[in-house]
Amino acid sequence: MNSKLNRSFNSKILLFGEYSLMKGSMALSIPYDKFSGNLMFESDNDKYEKHFSRPYLIYYLKFLKDNNLNSLINIKKFEKDLDKGLVFECNIPISYGLGSSGAIVASLYNAYSNKQTKDLLELKRIFSAMESFYHGQSSGLDPLVSYHNKAILIDEFGALKEMETPKLKKYNGEGVFLLDTETKSETQPLVDWFLNKYETQEFHEFVQNKLITANNNCITNFLKADLSTIFDCVKKVSEYTFDQFKPMIPDSVKEIWYSGLINDDYYLKLCGSGGGGMLLGFTKNTTQSLEKLQDYKIHLLDI
Questions:
Q1: CA 162, CA 152: separation in Å to the nearest integer?
Q2: Which residue segments constitute the domains of the chain, with CATH numbers given?
Q3: How far apart are CA 289 and CA 217, in angstroms?
Q4: Stated pTM of the model
């Protein structure tokens, strides 16, 4: 008989702040309860041996040991539980930008932390160290959202604020949606590309003077909870991404990305690191956009 070790931890949607967050922008991330995961014990040894999460957890144990993170995590207890059949049961798509690694980290911290804290900044620091196993460099934001199951805002001063997800006012069929590219992508190579590109003066100035401004305007307008105010700044982010972040946009969606921009039907943006996974879409006419994007899997968001 299988048994849960702890509660479920939801996936997340980074609404705004991808990449620019690493260079000082605001960010807003929300929990997404369509997908979740939890630690549990698999009693069937054959299923345990074949479980997709087993190698992830084994390598993560090695990471904890190699980086002397025993001050944060009870490594001995974690190792003993692995021997007892510990797995991470999860329906969050892997390598999709929906925070699968964040949910694992949040779940492990919940189950094995030596001393839990409620301080958001301290938690973010801890989660940043724990999630660096997956991405090399992590803001710690994904696990924080999953752990608290609340929207997290990083404001213009770098302060963290926990909040309920704003319920957007919609007037004439506007909507927000996820578009499934049906392509997996690894985060670290794209982060490396961004950091290397940022070393050039032209790209540095673009990020600081244009991208961050547009991103922060999106968040400011989003927090007003009025969807009609957000389209101009989302369009700018979409344009900037299309022009400057080519490796992050799969070839299979470049045509529809551009079509949405030139026809003002909808605006697509990255949802996380990009390269595949989900894209985030904003539309003034949900019915019309669904018709134009009928060849793609669309998930409408209740926000």
A1: 5
A2: 3-163 (3.30.230.10), 175-300 (3.30.70.890)
A3: 24
A4: 0.92
